[in-house]
Amino acid sequence: MKLRAENLSLTAQGRAILDGVSLDIPTGVSFGLIGPNGSGKSTLLRLLAGLEPRAQGHVMLDDTRLRDLPRREIARRIALVEQQADTGDALSAREVVELGRTPWLAALQPFGPEDHHIVDQTLAAVGMTELAARHWSTLSGGERQRLQIARALAQRPQVLLLDEPTNHLDIHHQLALLRLVSRLQVTVVMALHDLNQALECDLLGVMSGGRLIACGPPATVLTPERLRQIFRIRSTSLRDPSDDAQILRFHCLEDER
Ligand SMILES: Nc1ncnc2c1ncn2[C@@H]1O[C@H](COP(=O)(O)OP(=O)(O)OP(=O)(O)O)[C@@H](O)[C@H]1O
C-alpha cells in the first residue's frame, strides 16, 4: 500500500511542531525517519496513523484519504507502535497480542482459529512464545517492546509505523527485529536513532525543526555534510571487510576544537 503525506502541519501551544511535510512512500518500501531529539519524528508517525485530528494536510493510502476512512478501516490497514506503548497491567502477554486482532472482529465474526493462529505466529516471530502466559507488568522493557510489535503484526496491517522499535532491545533482538521487518511484504516507516541501522532502509527522510529537509536513498541522504549540519558530528564511512557493507563512525565536533 502506497503512503503519501501532503503538506502535513501541526501547531501545539502556538509553535509549529510539524511544518509542511510532504512525502511519497511506495508500496513495500522500508522508510527510515531520522533526526535529532524533538525534530518531529514521533509527531509525523502519529499523523501518518491518523491520530491527530488537529493536523492540517492530508495522508493518502493509495488513492484514499485517511480522513475519509472509519477508524476501524484505518486499524485494518495501519498499525502504529509508539515509543511509550503501554497496556493494562491485568493482561497476559498473549492477550496483549490478541488486541491486535480487534479491528478484524465483529459480532458475527468472533475470535476464531485463524485469529489464534495469527497470534501464535506473531508471538513466535518476536521470540515471545515462551512468555505468552506472563503478565504484562512482569515483563522487561525489551520484552514489552517485542510484544507491542507482535500486537502490531497481529493486526496484519499493510502499513507498519514503528517509533524507535529497537531502543529497548539487546543487539540480538535488534538485528532479529530489523530482519523480520525487512522481510515483511508491507510498507514500513520507522523512526531510528541508530544511523547504521538507518543505512539498511530503502529510503530515508531527515527531520529537523519539524520539517522534512531531505529524502532519498541512504547513501545520498547520509552525507558527512548533512550529518555535521543536523547532528553536529563528524562522520567517517568505513567498509566491513567481510561483505564490503558501509559502516558509519561518529565523532563529537566539540572534541575536535
Ligand atoms: N502536545 C504537545 N504540545 C507541545 N509540544 C509538543 C507536543 N507534542 C510534541 N511536542 C514538541 O514537538 C517537538 C517534536 O516532538 P516529537 O516527539 O515529534 O520529536 P521526535 O523527533 O520524535 O523526538 P525524539 O527523538 O526525542 O523522540 C518536540 O519539541 C516536542 O517537545
UniProtKB/TrEMBL annotation:
Q: Per UniProt, what is one GO molecular function of this protein?
A: ATP hydrolysis activity
Q: Which SUPFAM superfamilies does this entry report, sorted A to Z? A: P-loop containing nucleoside triphosphate hydrolases
Per UniProt, residues of the ABC transporter domain are: 3-234
Q: Name one Pfam family in it.
A: ABC_tran
| Gene3D superfamilies linked to this entry | P-loop containing nucleotide triphosphate hydrolases
Instruction: Fetch the InterPro entries from UniProt.
Output: AAA+_ATPase, ABC_transporter-like_ATP-bd, ABC_transporter-like_CS, P-loop_NTPase
Q: Could you tell me the keywords of this UniProt record? A: ATP-binding, Nucleotide-binding, Transport
Has keyword Transport? yes
Q: State the PANTHER family in the record.
A: ABC TRANSPORTER ATP-BINDING PROTEIN, HEMIN IMPORT ATP-BINDING PROTEIN HMUV
Give the protein family. Answer: Belongs to the ABC transporter superfamily.
State the protein's name: Iron complex transport system ATP-binding protein
